[in-house]
């Protein structure tokens, strides 16, 4: 049975468009706090906006559950209209926007694993500053779980993410920037040094596990969710892992780039392994709806140009 179009109890002309933006954010996130984060307002302000919007309609919009706010069937019908209208408005404004990197004062937002600060984000900031000193970057750390990556783009409004995870979502676009080679290291004088080590022997050694986003090296190699190494410690910081490895009989796997640029600070040496470690991909990740955005497209071009120059 076809549903009726949502009915207003007041004139449409009197609705504040900001209330519709809040409504869409709450339906999208299912949470007052997440919607507030996305809109950069307080949860209280979101709640007040929903109360105001509710006065315009003759149906309840949300019910509270143990996990957040659940939109009613009526609200979901309304959401379809509101979402289409706001998307159309945003697309129109975006198409008319004349982003000029030479004069813009825009601040771009990038979320990435923190090690990329060293490899490419610092050079990117310098590169952008040379082009226009009024442009700026904000860099945010990112734990690579699919839901957090998606939230980073859809809720935290980051322009792009740099991640090693491949996402299968129509709303997300990804471009492969490069693949990082890995190297296995142990302290000088480690019992496993100076002999060839097969995979089973290597797995049996104790490991300080580091990989971008906590993605296990052997999970990638075996295409499974199982990493059967004997792990002493998990860390998001490769320098911590290398420091611990040089003080013990534990081993660590890190990127060759990191080793070549910072390895001299540690009393470590490569292990002679008889198998090939997988390469870790890095994806330039962004919302599909921003693919033709002039500003986003320009930022992606700068990142790709920088990668071509430094690798």
TrEMBL record:
Entry annotated with the keyword Nucleus: no
Keywords per UniProt: DNA-binding, Transcription, Transcription regulation
The UniProt record lists the keyword Transcription regulation: yes
Pfam families recorded: HTH_1, LysR_substrate
SUPFAM superfamilies: Periplasmic binding protein-like II (SSF53850), Winged helix' DNA-binding domain (SSF46785)
Family annotation (Gene3D superfamilies): Periplasmic binding protein-like II, Winged helix-like DNA-binding domain superfamily/Winged helix DNA-binding domain
Molecular function (Gene Ontology), one example: DNA binding
Entry-linked InterPro entries: LysR-type_TF, LysR_HTH_N, LysR_subst-bd, WH-like_DNA-bd_sf, WH_DNA-bd_sf
HTH lysR-type domain mapped to chain residues: 15-72
Annotated family: Belongs to the LysR transcriptional regulatory family.
Protein name (record): LysR family transcriptional regulator
Species of the source: Ferrimonas aestuarii
